[in-house]
Amino acid sequence: MLSHSRCLTRNFGRSLSAIRQGNNGLARRATAALSASHSITLNNNVKSDPRSSVFQIQYFRTSVAHREEVVTVNTPAFAESVTEGDVRWEKAVGDTVAEDEVVCEIETDKTSVQVPSPAAGVILELLVPDGGKVEGGNALFTLRKGAGPPKAAEAPKAEAPAAATPPPPSAAPPPSPSAVGPIPTTMPPVPPVPAHAMDTKPVSSIKPTAPAAPAAQAEGATKGARTESRVKMNRMRLRIAQRLKEAQNTCAMLTTFNEVDMSNISEMRKTYKDAYLKKHNIKLGFMSAFVKAAAYALADQPSVNGVIDDTTKEIVYRDYVDISVAVATPKGLVVPVIRNVEGMNFTDIEKAINMLGEKARKNELAVEDMDGGTFTISNGGVFGSMFGTPIINPPQSAILGMHGIFDRPVAIGGKVEIRPMMYVALTYDHRLIDGREAVTFLRKIKSVVEDPRMLLLDM
Prior knowledge:
Layout: H1 2-21, H2 24-40, E1 70-74, E2 84-89, E3 96-97, E4 102-107, E5 112-116, E6 121-126, E7 133-135, E8 139-145, H3 151-164, H4 212-223, H5 235-250, E9 253-261, H6 263-280, H7 287-300, E10 307-309, E11 314-316, E12 323-325, E13 327-329, E14 332-334, E15 337-338, H8 346-361, E16 375-379, E17 398-412, E18 415-429, H9 435-450, H10 453-457
Helix pairs in contact: 1-2, 7-8, 7-9
């Protein structure tokens, strides 16, 4: 019985191998042997089923349909305060995109939302025109999954057959030096020029050729061209304009000024900047000093940190300090918020400013990064501004404007000295903040920046 089982197994293996290799004769012989071996094992009363000796080999081919699946990409959900946005396409129909590659950008009132491709594939259809309005959940485009050949790779393939073709036969080779005739040693006589063929006009009287006139006209037309172009305002710029106009119409804005001697803070930064960078892996700037000074002054003057609730006619005083830092981007001014500044030190503030600035440059700021804020600092000095009056960022009640540092003559102890000075401006809502609180607040910032030791002594 054991020998029959071995024979059956061996014949089965031969038959299957023969079928895979396409040897029909060998397959028939192996099948017959397998049938004979199989019939020996059967009882006399049982008839063998001829179908049991027939082997059916089924081949399965994996379909590529799952890789060429067409999917529809929808608009991502917006924040609660944002309802719609404008689409700006980065790709076109037929473009091949990789997974997580940005296909379009949706500009909202507060920020821009990038829409990446969910998978590698080819864009089939854009369902929204460029500049069209969309809401959360609207269909944006259709994508056929499966990476197609990149367009850049098609050019070398097309050029390959051209390069393989033999070059055309060149012209007849130049004659050998032996075939060239002898070089003459004397010049042939020059025939005389007729008198009527000579131009007797002076060189100065020769007029320029005709093509020079159109060139001069084209150059004059280019210099005198008066052209203009129109560009649609994006949603962020429209929202900024709306909020600035609301601030002018709502707040009773008034601005007070002061100047800050930057000698001590500049000397401290110069002395410790290398050691600070080595320990914290971040540069020490002036912005952290002003942010910390503003938090210190806001705790001293809570009305500057408050706001008027026009609906209930109440004044809301906040025990926390969330400072908005104005950052300029190519699309407009954004104000990401540094939260709970009252509990931060210089290093925490520098890291927060660096993180928000990096996100702003990469256009990765979310609405949550800009919501809230109890006070704003705007640093126009990075662009060289010497003096200015900032506008309040509603619903806040005040804004601090920093400007450039310039060497100016100042009176120190009855003597005139050259010191690095900065003008600072505080614009405040006079409906809530009186002049005494505004001036006291600005002088507190001045004293803390000029002498940071006051923070340690809580003075």
